[in-house]
Amino acid sequence: MRAGQAAIAAILLLAPLTAAAADGVPATRLDRAVILIGKREGVSIGISDPTLAALRTRPVGSTADVGAALGRMLAGTGAGAVRVGPRSWRIVRLPASPYPRPQPAPAASPEPLNDEEIVVIASKRDTPLGRYPASVAIVETDMVAPGLESLGSAALATYLPSLTSTHLGPGRNKLFVRGLADSSFNGPTQATVGEYLGEARLNYNGPDPDLRLYDVRSVEVLEGPQGTLHGVGTLGGVIRLQPAPPNLERPEASLTSGISFTEHGDPGGDLSAIVDLPLSDTLGLRTVGYRVREGGYIDDRLRGKDDVNRVDTVGGRVWLRFTPAADWAIDLGGALQEIEGRDSQYADRDAPPLTKASPIAEGFASRYGLGQLVIRKSWDDLTLTSATSFARQRIRESFDASTADDPTRFDQHGRVDFFSNENRLVRNNPDGSGWVVGTSIVENRYTLERSFAPIALAARLGGISNRIQEATAFGEGSFALGDRVLASVGGRLTVLELSGSAEGVTSFAFARAAKDKASRREVALLPSLSLSWRPTDGLLAYARYQQSFRPGGIVVRDAFVQRYRPDDVRAGEIGLRWEAPDETVRLSSALSYTSWRNIQADQIDAGGLPTTVNIGNGRIITLDAKASVRPAPGWSLDVAGVLADSRLTRPALAVAALVAVDRSDLPNVARLNASAALRYGTAVGAYDLSFSAWARYVGQSRLGVGPILGQRQGEYVDTGLSLRATRGRYAVSATLTNLTDETGNRFALGSPLMLGREQQVTPLRPRTLRIGLEAAF
User: Fold this and answer.
1) I need a surface site. Which of 29, 504, 586, 640 has the fewest CB within 10 A?
2) Helix 66-74 vs helix 30-41: angle between axes, to the nearest 10 degrees?
3) Are 58 and 29 in contact (CB under 8 A)?
4) Which of the listed ranges 106-115, 173-182, 338-347, 611-620 does the model predict with the highest average pLDDT?
5) What percent of the chain has pLDDT over 90?
6) 94 within 8 A of 80, measured Cβ to Cβ
């Protein structure tokens, strides 16, 4: 999964190797272990799936039985050895089991373990974690409690305090990383976080697609800015979902189901299936499909309806892999997902808990589709990657805009069409030096239509269509300044063509204003610098500087077409990362300072309608720390926290008066977020048992800037625990969330048109028990 060039090279480890001294093989990466055993025993050992190369193996002693040695080495890794000839073996992926068998910590290695076990794929250079000079968080799938994968991005936020979100509802939330939060509303502004599924960029603007985490091997969160390698719109960072690849060796399938019981609400359920079919020695197909129902728990007192906020999600992915030669890989894939919400997720602050009073249903829908083609070619230490993708997102939202005597619905329809092509060439050297160069072409079109719908008459409002085309050349190189010092320099040159038009209007003056303000060209150069020092094995100290930006656009504000300007961030970061030689302790900490100019924010205008403005300049100071401890075999403890101090240091004239009477914190940025997760796994007879418990504290933040938008939110603790038992190919689990049945307030917004008239809160889902069953075939 994480081996990069080393993994590709490992596919060709089929040349017979001469026998060496009969020494034991320490715990190490799989690609290194097969070399040692091959030399020792004089056999040929190949790795069929390059994603297996980075697996951590168990140590084995001296033995003349190659099969026994491979069996001990691969125990608990999910891989096995198949004999293909008198002196030839092949490492293959075993059929998936519902849960990995918990394993005790490996015995101490006679030599120091290499810190290159974990590779940061989203770095685009397959950089070992021990050499990566920036903050990164990695969530492996076995860290996620059973059933939480059905929650998508909400599951990631459970374990990552650096990741926060709005809570309008699944498929229409905005994600923020490291406190770079622009606003609480959805509009034409580009996202602050770049999201990827493998090599495919999922978003440009619009809300988080919120793909469910079924069949996802790992998730990497790179804290921003990440402009040099990932382009515009990565002010806060990058989130990369790494799906499981097709297995070219043998067919496999798995089925997961669960039923959920929510206190004060309706039951829910989830169902998913994964099928992997090798079509030939060089062609494999992997598919995943799922359906999730989240039972409602908000009662509408005015309409006399209970549990109105039910959400249904259905989706799936397809991945076809073709390997015409050992140094070629061609992947063709796609993803579809549809989310339907019957009503909004908010409640009235001053009403009884979990209730609201609305004359209409505020339903929403999100439809997302993605297609991608990825081609890879390797030559020794060079790897060429070409990735092309097209994404389409449709978001429909309805909000209550009623007055006392006039029930009215406000409808907003957003359409996003996003095309991306990137080609890059990478070279990595054993000492950590290397380079990446590449080009990128992006085209994105965002269209927003709005209308009011009173009971007797529908009134269509002016909409906007923004189109962005960008052409980019980028590069980054690292070079050694000594045995333990690396310096990196990079840059990205981007040329953007922006155009816009008025949609659905009849006024000539309105359309002419849109035309005059829309078309223009922007050129941006995004540099990056970093310096890293490894004073001892396992310890890394680093400093880095990087930039990113978002282009401007046009918007309707107070019945006029107006332009909002580009914004940009410049950030400096210093950090430390340390790992014990026996891998039982891993610590990291980073301090960053971010300057944010001309902040774009989706706000509401004088008529209560969503719009976009530049609210001024700001700065964010963050201190984050993580600790991962393995105190005893089978036990693990992960603790993380983020302190953030954000300020709107120079407000624009349009918001200066508002800030003068209120605090100047940036929206949705809590002073403190923290999380902790405790896990234990053991084998009891024929059963593998595992337990996990977690807690997350979300500090207090504000909805926006000013007395109306400055509603307080956050300051709650969310908790959960899970138990699971696995026997062979079958597993049963129980997961309990929100143990204390806390109501809390995740988000102080439901309908933006009711701000100033009603106090709104978005409560946590009440205490919920999920019972799950899984089977693998």
Assistant:
1) 504
2) 170
3) no
4) 338-347
5) 57
6) yes
pLDDT tens for 185-216 read: 887 788 899 999 999 999 998 899 999 999 99
CB distance 397 to 339 below 8 Å: no
In order, the DSSP letters of 38-94 are HHHHT-EEEES-GGGTTPBPPPB---S-HHHHHHHHHTTTTEEEEEEETTEEEEEEP
In the chain, DSSP finds a helix count (H) and a strand count (E) of: 7, 42
How distant, in Å, are the alpha carbons of 172, 224, 446, 551, 564 from that of 188? 13, 21, 7, 11, 10
List residues bridging with 259 in a β-sheet.
269, 771
At 360, which amino acid appears? I
**C-alpha torsion sign, points 743, 748, 750, 754:** positive
User: Between 560 and 396, where is the model more confident?
Assistant: 396
H/E stretch holding 201: strand 200-201
What token pair was written down for 408? 């009215």
Average pLDDT over residues 539-546: 97
**pLDDT digits 0-9 by tens, 88-130:** 677 877 654 443 433 333 333 333 333 345 788 889 988 888 8
User: CB under 8 Å to 440, separation ≥6 — which residues?
Assistant: 231, 420, 421, 422, 423, 470, 471, 472, 473, 474
Look at residues 761, 758, 168, 711 and name the one whose alpha carbon lies nearest to residue 404.
758
**d(Cα 492, Cα 700) in Å, to the nearest integer?**
37
Given its phi and psi angles, is residue 744 left (phi above 0), alpha (psi -120 to 50 degrees) or beta? left
Position 490 pLDDT exceeds 90:
yes
Report the SS3 class of residue 27. coil
Distance CA 169, CA 290 (A): 19
Distance of alpha carbon 236 from alpha carbon 163, whole angstroms: 10
Locate 308 and state its tokens.
């109105």
Strand partners of residue 375: 330, 386
3-state class of 156 per DSSP?
helix
3-state secondary structure of 281: coil
What is the structure's pLDDT at 758?
A: 79
Report the C-alpha gap between 701 and 646 in whole angstroms: 11
Which residues sit opposite 256 in a β-bridge? Answer: 272, 774
Residues 19 and 40 sit within 8 Å (Cβ to Cβ): yes
| 3-state DSSP assignment of residue 154 | helix
Judged against a pLDDT cut of 50, whether residue 423 lies above it is answered with yes
Residues 195 and 209: their CA atoms lie apart, in Å, by: 9
At 655 the three-state DSSP class reads helix
Q: Which of 67-71, 361-365, 461-465, 611-615 has the lowest mean pLDDT?
A: 461-465
Torsional class of 79: left (φ above 0), alpha (ψ -120 to 50), beta (otherwise): beta
Cβ(112)–Cβ(537) below 8 Å: yes
Query: What's the Cα-to-Cα distance from 416 to each of 189, 209, 345, 601, 632, rounded to whole Å?
Result: 12, 11, 24, 19, 50
| Residue 315 burial (C-beta neighbours within 10 Å; 0-12, 13-18, 19+) | buried
Nearest-angstrom CA–CA distance, 468 and 568: 17
- Global pTM reads 0.84
Amino acid at 80: G
- Reply yes or no: is the peptide bond before residue 59 cis, omega within 30 of 0: no
Of 218, 229, 238, give the one whose Cα is nearest residue 162.
238
Give the closest residue to 239 by CA, choosing from 229, 251, 224, 257.
Answer: 224
Question: Are the C-beta atoms of 488 and 478 separated by less than 8 Å?
Answer: yes
Amino acid at 450: R
